[in-house]
Write a structure and sequence with these properties.
heterodimer, A: alpha/beta, 6-stranded mixed sheet, 4-stranded antiparallel sheet, 10 strands, about 25% strand, globular, B: about 550 residues, alpha+beta, SH3 type barrels, MetI-like fold, 6-stranded antiparallel sheet, 15 helices
């Protein structure tokens, strides 16, 4: 185990950090999120992201893969500033969304998070009814018109493929739904805010294969209208649903390319080792 | 052999035994105290049989036997003798000067339970034990002994009670008639005392007021005369309904029927009749006002005062405690300062309650109450309105006392709200406040209610701080009544805990009041349990709604 850790560190050191990660694969795509030289520290001693540069294309699914603790969730949480909640953490570098620096003064966090929705690893429905869960976002953002809310709830649930299953029990507690249904409810809840970007932090890792399949189906339908960034541990899942893939290790972005390229003919040896299961 | 000993040690059986012993002792003591309170408290109202005891020296006593004990005495030769003694409640305080007597079993010549012995509960002087000699209703007088006489006594009592009710009504009407005039006269007196009376304007005003008072006096003179006559007539009427009783030794005593609460012949009563009487007395205890410096009658004002005080305390303590906990937990930056504040709040729970009482007296009563009087009730000064002990200040003092409990319980409730739910709300674009209001607070409600339950349990039983912030032995009026503005927060009040102290240790007739102490204690426990059950009911309903959180 220790040996492996050392090997990995050695490999990271020799991974030619001076050579910039190639984004040539994105030619012709509109870029929605862009980071430049992003450094993130949980505390002064814990350097979680190191000079990360990444570009996320418009209305495509981008997957972050890499071993545990490589910083992919941290990077994801930089996009909607969820890391702000961690006391003592700080960030250097820039994150641009639609060309705007989201870490500059005067940014309203509520507006940002409404635009950049997030689905968490563990489904976290509120202890309210199904309807109230989906209407939560629009309501906190100031929509009070009942018929408008009804419409939003229905269309969000339909987009998340949950409408058929819950339309007769919208007033039942969300906690009565099954695990997979709860996670799709969380997706519907995010969609109700009409976001541009959806961040997904291992959305299916706590679910059984059938529920996972349904979630993947949903994601495939959603990418027609939304920019999706997904963190996953599951290599096959990344292969099935994503258009682009970024491989990260020890806080650094190692390789970014089309998913097809990464899984068939990666540029870096480290990427190949990880994908073929030699470590991680 | 050695192997077995070490295995015994490994299992730690001796420690398990010690732990279980501790639990058994604690539970046993709780069960014992509840048993004592229940048995003594509930048996107080059961009408006991009356016994007629005749001694060798020809004296006779009628009453209830309460206790017996064995004493050891040395006689002239230095031998030890066992002597059995028993305690009798002989009542008739106005004749004997005491309620209880200890008698030697050896002195008793004859003991019997006469069926015609009557127990009378009076409004003054306690119980009377004796035999009916005569009943007088106006001009009529009945003397022939037997069942008819007892029936006549019942009828006389009904009449006297009805008349008594009419007297009270008339008094009320009279008070209402006189009230405006009394207010006017008070105003005149105040004006005469003030420096304003020396000025020309003051004199003029005084003359005006006096004129008004005179005219008002004339206008109510007729009504006053009629009511007063009626009152005199009724009082006279009740003075003519008289019960003549004989004691065990034959002495006669006349008692006005209007002074009698109830009377009965316990020795001829069936179990059912006694149960009925018991229920009636229990109801009187809960619903009536106290008599005879609190040793008889009911405790309704004390129940009312306790409940109103606890409710006011809850209304005061919950918002403050919850707000403090939310700030400490959700907004404040965790650091040395917050740790220090948290430690201070926890230590506040260990401050002796009398210290809170003194603080309440100094801060709430003198500082806050005094200022309120200066600004809003200056016309009544120097007589204080809020600048003296009252139910509001007592409730606030107790709210301060129970604040740490609510803060700590609420903080635990807040901590138990899943982090995922908080993040979920923020990720949907909710502000911190929206997250707290819509996700955190509903989730933490069971924890807040736990705090309230603990606060009620602690607050309802406190006596020391109340004694200097507004509790009194006997409050003539309740904190809530029908006269404007209905809620009188400045009034002094009665409290069950203080009632126990007062009746048990401050009353002139401690021996007779002892059972009352147990009964009142029982009632206090019942009220605390009831208030807690209400809170627990709501907590369980909330828990069902927000299952997943553990508070």
């Amino acid at each position: 185990m220790e040996m492996l850790q050392k090997d990995m560190e050695k490999m990271a050191e020799t991974a030619h950090p001076e050579i910039p990660v190639e984004f040539s694969a994105l030619a012709g795509e509109r870029i929605v999120i862009e980071t430049t030289e992003l450094d993130f520290y949980y505390s002064a001693e814990s350097h979680a992201l190191k000079k990360v540069n990444i570009r996320i294309p418009y209305r495509k699914v981008t997957a972050f893969i890499g071993p545990s603790g490589c910083g992919k969730s941290t990077l994801l949480r930089c996009f909607n500033r969820m890391n702000d909640l961690i006391p003592g953490s700080f960030l250097e570098g820039k994150v641009l969304i639609e060309g705007e620096d989201i870490y500059k003064n005067g940014i309203r966090l509520e507006e940002l998070r409404k635009k950049v929705g997030m689905v968490f690893q563990k489904s976290n429905p509120f202890p309210m009814s199904v309807w109230e869960n989906v209407a939560f976002g629009p309501r906190v953002n100031g929509i009070t018109n009942k018929s408008e809310l009804e419409e939003m709830v229905e269309s969000s649930l339909k987009q998340a493929d949950l409408w058929k299953e819950v339309k007769d029990r919208l007033q039942a507690s969300a906690l009565d739904l099954s695990g997979g249904q709860q996670q799709r409810l969380c997706i519907a809840r995010t969609l109700a805010n009409k976001p541009d970007i959806i961040l997904m932090d291992e959305p299916a890792s706590a679910l059984d294969p059938i529920s996972t399949g349904k979630i993947e189906e949903t994601i495939n339908e959603l990418k027609e209208e939304y920019t999706i960034v997904i963190v996953t541990h599951n290599m096959q899942q990344a292969g099935r649903i994503s258009d682009y893939t970024a491989f990260m290790m020890l806080g650094e972005m190692v390789e970014f390319d089309t998913t097809k390229k990464i899984f068939t003919n990666p540029r870096e040896k480290m990427t190949e080792d990880y994908i073929t299961g030699r470590f991680g | 052999m050695e192997r077995r000993i070490s295995y015994f040690k490994q299992k730690g059986d001796s420690y398990i035994f010690a732990a279980s012993l501790g639990l058994v002792i604690s539970l046993g003591m709780v069960a014992w105290i509840i048993f004592v309170i229940l048995s003594r408290g509930l048996s107080f109202f059961w009408p006991g049989d009356t016994v007629l005891v005749k001694l060798h020296n020809d004296s006779a006593y009628l009453g209830e036997i309460w206790e017996s004990k064995t004493v050891y005495r040395l006689d002239a030769e230095g031998d030890e003798h066992e002597e059995e003694q028993f305690q009798m409640k002989i009542g008739n305080r106005d004749l004997y000067g005491r309620d209880f007597i200890w008698l030697n079993r050896a002195d008793v010549a004859q003991e019997s339970s006469p069926p015609d012995a009557v127990t009378i509960e009076r409004r003054e002087y306690g119980k009377f034990f004796g035999f009916i000699r005569a009943v007088q209703i106006g001009e009529e007088r009945f003397e022939q002994p037997g069942a008819v006489l007892f029936e006549k006594a019942r009828e006389a009592h009904r009449q006297a009670t009805a008349t008594r009710g009419r007297i009270k009504d008339t008094q009320k009407k009279l008070n209402k008639l006189m009230q405006p005039l009394a207010n006017l006269q008070r105003e005149i007196t105040l004006l005469q005392l003030s420096p304003e009376a020396k000025t020309e304007k003051g004199r003029q005003k005084l003359a005006e007021l006096q004129k008004e008072a005179e005219s008002r006096e004339q206008s109510i003179a007729d009504g006053y005369g009629i009511l007063n006559q009626e009152l005199e007539r009724l009082t006279l009427q009740n003075r003519s309904i008289i019960l003549t009783m004989a004691t065990a030794e034959g002495a006669e005593k006349e008692i006005y029927f209007s002074e009698i609460v109830r009377f009965f012949r316990p020795n001829t009563m069936s179990g059912l009749a006694k149960a009925w009487l018991y229920a009636g007395k229990l109801w009187e205890f809960v619903a009536d006002e106290p008599r005879e410096s609190n040793t008889e009658g009911g405790v309704f004002p004390a129940i009312f005062g306790t409940v109103v005080m606890v409710l006011l305390m809850s209304i005061a303590v919950v918002p403050f405690g919850v707000m403090a906990a939310i700030y400490l937990n959700e907004y404040a930056r965790q650091g040395a300062m917050i740790r220090f504040i948290r430690l201070s709040v926890n230590n506040l729970a260990g401050v002796p309650s009398i210290v809170f009482g003194v603080f309440g007296l100094g801060f709430f009563i003198y500082a806050v109450g005094g200022s309120i009087d200066q600004f809003f009730f200056s016309d009544k000064l120097p007589e204080p309105t809020f600048g003296t002990g009252g139910i509001l200040w007592a409730s606030f003092t107790l709210a301060l006392l129970t604040l740490p409990v609510v803060v700590v319980a609420t903080e635990e409730g807040l901590l138990a709200v899943p982090r995922a739910n908080k993040e979920g709300a923020l990720a949907l674009g909710a502000t911190r406040w929206q997250m707290i209001r819509k996700v955190v607070l509903p989730n933490a409600l069971p924890g807040i209610l736990t705090g309230l339950i603990l606060a009620i349990s602690r607050g309802a039983g406190e006596v020391a701080p109340l004694m200097i912030t507004g509790v009194v032995k006997l409050a003539p009026t309740l904190a809530i009544d029908g006269s404007f503005p209905f809620l009188h927060l400045d009034r002094k009040f009665m409290h069950l805990g203080f009632h126990i102290y007062d009746v048990g240790f401050q009353s002139p007739n401690v021996e007779a009041a002892k059972p009352m102490v147990y009964t009142t204690a029982l009632l206090l426990i019942v009220i605390v349990v009831l208030l807690n059950l209400v809170a627990i009911y709501f907590r369980n309903r909330l828990r069902k709604k927000y299952r997943g959180s553990t508070f």
